[in-house]
TrEMBL record:
It comes from the Bacteria. The gene is rex. It holds the Pfam family CoA_binding. It comes from Nocardiopsis algeriensis. This is Redox-sensing transcriptional repressor Rex. GO terms for biological process: negative regulation of DNA-templated transcription; response to redox state. Homodimer. InterPro entries: CoA-bd (IPR003781), NAD(P)-bd_dom_sf (IPR036291), Rex_actinobacterial-type (IPR058236), Rex_DNA-bd_C_dom (IPR009718), Tscrpt_rep_Rex (IPR022876), WH-like_DNA-bd_sf (IPR036388), WH_DNA-bd_sf (IPR036390). The keyword Nucleotide-binding does not apply.
Length: 231
């Protein structure tokens, strides 16, 4: 019988906690690079942008409670979170859609140090096929199924135009890929058991615009108040 590490939600870790674990890990790795051996919950929470009570509760799901008066051992906590997120393994990734965003992702050097290996780049444009990007030769989308099987791809990244994304997702799923990162501005329909994370940059910008507008409105109200008093 083959054993495997339980996934976070199988161990009862809330999805909201799972979403914050990479943020904690990034803060801890920065501390590790500076040679910091221990960190208090308050300092780590501040670095991660959450309150300390929430951080302590999140980490308690991993069985990590820290030591009173000392805090958390940075190296140990990095290992714990990395293991929980599956980053102690090597995950093969295929990117479909090698436009500007696809190229940027392929050239990003941070994936390799975090347990992700860009194994294949695929595109439907004949002019793109055969080009080399980040030391990889771009293959044709027609080879997706063969690439997934032969190179052990576990995670598919979609950076295609919206109209092509669903077809690519369906092919990933049928080829056995259970995790998809979608940058296309469209909601994908996938079977139960397939995990999709959606990154929509336009939505994020709109949310920022909302907050910027609120701040500007607040500043305007403050500035207008003295004028009203003088009238």
């Amino acid at each position: 019988m083959t054993s495997r590490t339980p996934r976070p939600r199988e161990r009862g870790i809330p999805e909201a906690t799972v979403a914050r674990l990479p943020v904690y890990l990034r803060a801890l790795q920065a501390l590790q690079e500076r040679g910091t051996p221990t960190v208090s919950s308050e300092a780590l929470a501040e670095a991660a942008g959450v309150n300390s009570a929430k951080l302590r509760k999140d980490l308690s799901h991993l069985g990590s409670y820290g030591t009173r008066g000392v805090g958390y051992e940075v190296e140990h906590l990095v290992h714990q979170i990395s293991r929980e997120l599956g980053l102690t393994q090597d995950w093969a990734v295929a990117i479909v859609g090698i436009g500007n965003l696809g190229r940027a992702l392929a050239n990003y050097g941070g994936f390799g140090t975090r347990g992700f290996r860009i194994e294949a780049l695929l595109d439907a444009d004949p002019a793109m096929v055969g080009q080399r990007v980040a030391s990889l030769e771009v293959g044709h989308i027609d080879s997706l199924e063969e690439v997934v099987g032969s190179r052990g791809v576990s995670i598919g990244v979609i950076t295609t135009p919206a109209e092509a994304a669903q077809a690519v997702a369906t092919r990933f799923v049928e080829a056995g890929v259970g995790s998809i990162l979608n940058f296309a501005p469209v909601v994908l329909n996938v079977p139960d058991g397939v995990d999709v994370r959606k990154v929509d940059l336009s939505i994020e910008l709109q949310i920022l615009a909302f907050h910027a507008q609120r701040r500007a409105a607040g500043d305007g109200q403050v500035a207008a108040a003295p004028g009203l008093e003088l009238t």
